[in-house]
Specification:
The chain is α+β, with helices and mostly antiparallel strands and 480 residues long. It folds into four domains: 78 residues, no CATH class; 93 residues; 140 residues, no CATH class; 122 residues, Rieske Iron-sulfur Protein, CATH 2.102.10. Helix content is 23%, strand content 29%. The strands form seven sheets. It has a five-stranded antiparallel beta sheet, with no helix packed on it. It has a five-stranded mixed beta sheet with strand order 6-10-11-12-17, with no helix packed on it. Strands 7-19-9-8-18 form a five-stranded mixed beta sheet. The longest helix is centred in the N-terminal third of the chain and has 30 residues. It is elongated, with a radius of gyration of 40 Å.
Length: 480
Amino acid sequence: MSHATVSQPLRPAGPVSVVLPTEPEGQTDNHSAVSTTQRRRDFVNHPTRVRLYCCPRAGTLSLGTMSRAPQNLGRSRGGNPADARYIVKTFRRFLVTLFVATLAVASAAVMTFGTHPALAKYPQGLEWITTARRLQWPLMTLCLALCVSLIGLVIAGRRSAFWLIVLMPVLFLFYQRFAGDPFRRMAILDNPNFIATDKATFLKPESQVVGLVFEGQPYAYPTASLAAAPVIAHADGDKRLLVMYSPYAGRAQAFVVDNTIKPRELDIVSMPADALLLYNARIGQFINAFTGQTLSGERPEGFKTPIETRRTNWREWRTLHPDSQVLAVGGAPATEKLTPRFPTRPVNLELPGDARVALLATPHPLAVQTGKIARDSEPLNVSAGGAHLLVYRERGTGKLRAFNRVISGDLFPKFRRRAVSGKPDVAFTDADTGSLWSLDGRCLDGYAKGESLKPVAIEEDLAYGTLKSFTPDLEVLKVQ
């Protein structure tokens, strides 16, 4: 049997060596001639089979001639037959490993970007965010299992260490999910420390605070602290209070809650349209901190009585409530003003999304641009939001006020400013009865003397885009 071996290193170019068996010189006897002739006849009558061998460790290929008999098929030392089955098996292993790596990165990407606030600008964006949050832990488990499997294959020598590069994007995505964006680092506090007013030296007179009165005790929450910890729970006696603040929208909601609401079971999910979105992991319920409701418009489980909050500066709140307790939690600089950051939901906007408005508590939600009403301008006498309103801004304090201008049950007088010498309390007069009215809506003299206008609650300095995103029937008061 003839035998030939070709060795070629696995590189772009190089020489090929061929080794052929030859007869020793000087052998010219008849026996040698007959043997050579017989071998040539056998070669012609029985064509030689050539098989390709691959030696992965040495990086060489060898060609060998061999008998047709299957039992004589041999292998080169340390090599594997480079036939179709071997090539298909190698390619299949590559595809399986690539699939595992791709699935690990994809699950981490869905977990990271599936709750991003920018998704809220799409029609089904809010549903995508909630679904991604529900699948967060299964996706994380799948991603970690795939990464551990890949590491095990590399350690066992069944895969190249090159595949460990997949861990780099996975680690980056995990960091991005839990700490990459500022709102991802916001905290939820349970029973934080409060200090007396005279010890709150870190607050300046113009520092913004959210104030409320709970069980007769005034509390002040600096907005700079709430920007770092927008969810705070604390107790007073046997009652528990939960404060939720949407820093980019500038609105706080507070509720008396029962003992089923535990901060460790709450999770900050996202900020769609700049509204803080919470998730109660115990019951699987999403809470919109901007509206204080669930995504279906209902009151969350465990939420009881709402507490009125007021956003003002520290000077004003300290003057009104000198015995306040102040949240002693550090945060951003006190003068920092957070502005709208994320896109609004797909709703029709009558004003720019970052416009600042005041929300009036009328039968139907009503918003008015705060910058359109000046201190010296005449009061607005309008019918909007299902009510007849008197809206004006105080000249001294600049505070926006609104009243329901109904007297005697069926009269809707129109007001204008008026000053009377010797009567400093007089601020308005109505054109229908000529009566004189004070800034707080009391009739001081005239036909309606003794009557008072019903005040309408106002929330100032809210982001219009966020308000419109979660209040589709919001009406905007047109002010020329």
